[in-house]
Amino acid sequence: MKAVRMHGYGGIEQLFYEDAAEPRIAEPNDVIVKLKAAAINHIDIWNRLGQTGQIFEIPHILGADGAGIVVEVGAKVTNLKPGDAVCLYPPTGCGQCEFCLTGNDWMCIRLRVLGERLEGTYAEFVRLPAENCFPIPAGYSFEEAAAFPLVFVTLWRMLITNAKLKPGETVLIIGIGGGVASASLQVAKRLGAHVMVTSSSDEKLERAKQLGADHAVNHRKRDFVEAVNELTKQRGVDLVVDCVGGEVWRKSLASLTRGGRLVTCGATAGGQPDDDIAAIFSKHLTIYGSTLGSREEFRQLLSFLTVSRIKPIIDSVFPLRDAASAQHRVETAQQFGKVVLRIPN
Ligand SMILES: [Zn+2]
After folding, report:
1. How does pLDDT run across 281-328, given as a tens digit for each residue?
2. Per the structure, how many domains does the chain have?
3. How many angstroms is it from 46 CA to the middle of ligand 1?
4. Spatial contact of 226 and 206, defined as CB atoms under 8 Å apart
5. Are 279 and 319 part of one and the same domain?
6. Residues with CB under 5 A from ligand 1 (ion)
7. 257 and 227, same structural domain?
8. How far is the CA of 239 from the centre of ligand 1 (A)?
9. How far, in Å, is the centroid of ligand 1 from the Cα of 100?
10. Domain match, 195 and 284 both
11. pLDDT digits (tens, 9 = 90+) for 96-130
12. Shared domain check, 139 and 87
């Protein structure tokens, strides 16, 4: 099959479009999916750079997100058959550690995620457990079905399970171009929140307004804490979505009202920010860190996407062979929404 494989840790020059062995059923609950689309996530880039630890053998196929058609099922698979169109839930646990045994297998100490300890989706075929395949939401194309799983299940856990976002609350989303940020805007607006967004790009802020953002602040031109204070009459916001970190982190904390919550699932601008511990305890703040989410959260999310008719925002679609260019677009933060790979038949 054709695949894009990385041949070493480093820049996009390590990615090669080439022939690779087709995956075979190895366990009785495995399935093989012929992929139609995959999507780029920051985690792919961190894995390529070796920033997540060198956790897989080289050459390696990246990619956590994908959608396609089941072509082969293992002997014990009863919920799927060849021909089923599926989207993919990326993580799977060992089934034996304390987290797996208590239904929290996405927190497994030996977690296997597509594109990390499992071969990923930048390929014509992928092998994965049958319980990681879900029906595609009604009306979704394969590109849309590949674009939503990782970012939406992540934000669902952050906003709904952890921060318990309520209608009428004020939300500040930092760096609105990113996949999680733009999807958070869609979900928060649908839930009836009052949403403010930041970016250094007027073009991205304009797109966010078209998607329903109530206020947009260009943080290169204006201090967003000042803007938050003005808009909330010095109160601050209830919830900040900050997957940027770095220099922004301290301002995110300063933007929160008393009892406010901050959710984070990444730090694209730096993971060792200048912190403000006094703000955390004196304002009674709660910080929720998370990655991914559970199968139950994924199931809730699929139901919500069907009812709300929300679709992921697709920034651009590249052919599989151009995965390096697609990653470059995300690595240099040029995108608004998801960068998708179309996988030829
Ligand atoms: Zn486990």
Report:
1. 999 999 999 889 999 999 999 999 999 999 999 999 999 999 999 999
2. 2
3. 23
4. no
5. no
6. 93-94, 97, 100, 108
7. yes
8. 31
9. 4
10. yes
11. 999 999 988 889 999 999 999 999 999 999 999 99
12. yes
